[in-house]
Amino acid sequence: MNNLALSLISTILIGLGATLTFDLWAVFLKHAFKITPSNICLIGRWLRYMPEGTFKHSNILLAPQKSAECTVGWIAHYIIGVMFAIAFVALAGNGWLQHPTPIPAIVFGVVTVVASFFIMQPSFGLGFAASKMSNPTQARLRSLMNHTAFGIGLYLFGSLVRWLPLVFAQYGIRQIAQAARCNIKNIPE
Question: Judging by beta carbons within 10 Å of its beta carbon (0-12, 13-18, 19+), is residue 62 exposed, middle or buried?
Answer without folding.
Answer: exposed
